[in-house]
Amino acid sequence: MTTNKNNLTTSWGAPVxxxxxxxxxxxxxxxLIQDVHLLEKLAHFNRERVPERVVHAKGAGAHGYFEVTxxxxxxxxAEFLSEVGKRTPLFVRFSTVAGENGSADSxxxxxxxxxxxxxxEGNYDLVGNNTPVFFIRDAIKFPDFIxxxxxxxxxxxxxxxxxxxxxxxxxxxxxxxxxxxSDRGIPATYRHMHGFGSHTFKWVNAEGEGVWIKYHFKTxxxxxxxxxxxxxxxxGENPDYHTQDLYExxxxxxxxxxxxxxxxxxxxxxxxxxxxxxxxxxxxxxKDYPLIExxxxxxxxxxxxxxxxxEQATFSPGTLVPGIEPSPDKMLQGRLFAYADAHRYRVGxxxxxxxINRPKAEVHNYQRDGQMRIDSNxxxxxxxxxxxxxxxxxxxxxxxxxxxxxxxxxxxAYDHNDHYTQAGDLYRLLSEEExxxxxxxxxxxxxxxxxxxxxxxxxxxxxxxxPEYGTRVAxxxxxxxxxxx
Length: 485
Ligand code: NDP
Description:
Structural class: alpha+beta
Order of helices and strands: HEEEEHHHEEEHHEEHEHHHHH
Number of strands: 10
Bound molecules: NADPH dihydro-nicotinamide-adenine-dinucleotide phosphate
Strand content: 15-25%
Distance between the termini: 82 Å
CATH superfamily of the domain at 25-156 and 186-360: Catalase core domain
CATH architecture of the domain at 25-156 and 186-360: Beta Barrel
CATH topology of the domain at 25-156 and 186-360: Catalase HpII,  Chain A, domain 1
């Protein structure tokens, strides 16, 4: 007899006779090892979790589309940006950064803003945050930085001493710390925040001419934030507040949208601009490089299955298409390796074959085998190159552009060390009410630091950004601004 459509089956498709009572020797047991359905059910359950992302563990996702609204084809040959009106399907994942998978949404933390464009030339991932800058600018510091955001190895508690010790000894973090502690550090929902590519990338046109660019997604819902008090209250009442908000908005047809803009910098300006344009702790002033509209992103479809889509989605800044290339940004260069490597560990070497990650473009290459090879594995097609069997071939017109480099191979710091001007510019741009809340948020966090040495070192940094900023934080902590520490 063939299996009826409504029959419960094992994973190998055989009908299950009893799913409520395990098979026992006599009505009391013990349980029999021959109950393979029970064994399989328990064993599969034990394996339901893939490793949690080390960062960005808690997230929410949605499908949508991108539509080009301005002709940027003179800057990039990327096919999905080639003409006004062109639409490309996409998948977005928003996330908090430091918390675990079950942690609260409404905490003070940057938000991940990762977009996967399913273009006809392969997938393009724009893996950004809701802030234009980052805490550090060299990937070699990332594991240490994240350790300070995670739990203490003995107490398993969050550790404000580690957080502020690291920041005070890494003054390049000051700009991002100021954004994080400002009102925008807790967005009201995922819909009410901007997104940024943060790094500098290179766009290349059909003639092989390049420009440096930075991406800005501006929310059409408007910026809305939560105060520390409201965020804390919501975290207790509904830890999944942002996840629920995104799902429900889309479910009722209130589709969130963002306008995408780029700032464009001529290649030669990189050598003379007043900040290193590849330093991800800096923005490019919009007075120098104004925003140029590119298109509009709309999220209009919820995932059908959270694990299959949101959890298994794998984004990497190295997932690029012709016409979009990396810059020498040292943080980006590290991420080019680290993200894809995280996915190989977390989801597997064949993560790009899963439905949520599979490109709409056809994949032809000589990669074979590996765990969970769920497609046809190339069938009987040629499996090496070079070959005389008509296998897929490289296309030299799609090589990334060459650019000159010079200097010694060495462990070298960025040579621009002004960590203060832009953090101060941001402070000075805030209204008095915003400054009061910024200082209050900082003081609330730094109060938990038990070592005055750390607090004094950090106050110096705020002071160098703007004397008023440093003085107010010092006063809030009951300290005075120290002379140089
Ligand atoms: P601009 O006046 O040209 O740009 C200011 C930018 O700051 C706008 O993008 C604006 O975004 C954003 N902004 C406004 N209010 C706040 C706020 N309360 N918190 C965070 N961001 C805010 O000046 P510059 O380009 O010279 O930048 C000045 C400072 O603005 C920078 O030092 C940086 O800290 C901050 N900034 C700059 C960005 C850039 O790309 N240049 C991007 C984001 C912040 P909006 O229109 O959405 O309010």
